[in-house]
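Q: Okay, next protein. This is D-ribose-binding periplasmic protein from Paenibacillus konkukensis. I've checked the sequence twice, so it should be correct. Can you predict the 3D structure?
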Amino acid sequence: MKSLKQSIALLLVLILSISLAACGAKPEAKQEGAAPADNAAAGAAGSLANKKIALIMQINLGTFSAQYIEGVKEQAEKLGGKVTVFTADGDLAKMSSNLDAAINQKFDGILIDHGTAEALDQGIKKAVEKKIPVIAFDADIKVPGVTVLEQGDQKMAELTLDKMSKDIGGKGNIVKIWVAGFAPMERRQVAYQQFMDKNKDVKEVAAFGAASQNTALDTQAQMEAILKKYPNKGDITAVWAAWDEFAKGAARAIQQAGRTEIKVYGIDMSDEDLQMIQDTTNPWVASAAVDPKDIGRVQVRYLYQKLHGDQTPDNIVLDPVFVSRDQLPQTQISTTQLSEHVKGWGNSEQGYTDWLKQLEQPAKK
């Protein structure tokens, strides 16, 4: 009898032990099965929700800037953030003041679009000291901890200059439209000077350019004056424009003057630019560019990496693509359709991480 009682007691202890082990295993098994990316995304979602982002722009002009801002806002909103745009209308003192205002208003992150080190360094250093991450685009900034994005400016210039040289047979009179004081322009000028040094049969007969609130219109007026100065066929073979606003103005002046023998080669791309290039009666025949929406998207991704505490490179170069009329269909398309005809356009994966893609999921539902 005693041994029976002992056996029953042992059996109860054994059953109880198995039940406890089974209960304890459930949460442990769940923990082991959780994906690291899911855990990282869940943590990021909590820490990165509702971030306020300031976009500090030197100048907001034309469709390129509009599409760039659209890319910034689109990516930020997918990640749960909100963007406020501060534009300086080309005034560097105002841009510096806008940067100070963003810092004082305690924005969570700051994006810089163009500007100079002289105008921005002090403010950027102040932001870094206050642990506000900064990502700059096309600005000559070298502050430790700040990531700077740039388009492949020299490559873009080389692509369009090489196409121009091929089209004009390596000789002729050209007009350069360019302006100093912008980091991307300075890089494009390096490629231009190298091209001119190598191509002695290409002569620069005129050069001008200024950034204003009416750049395309002002460029058109200046180009009209140059056409009157060089009225004969052959006086001007081609125009090289270092900015799409310059290309638009020059192309309109040439088209209205009926000087169809003069072709325009530009840099940058927007929906408006693409429409002009597709128009067979328009002098603008080719451009090199990075999708402006992609620029904005990539810039925001690196900002969120910094907000997450990740290390980011000091410099990031965005790869440009070359777009010419002969690549495009006869029917009008937009830049969102350009990837169907031009390899490498749009949908850049630069700056993406697995946890960032996971973080986007709630916004997509």
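A: Here is a summary of the prediction. The chain has a mean pLDDT of 89. The CA atoms of residues 37 and 354 lie 7 Å apart.
Q: Noted. On to the next one.
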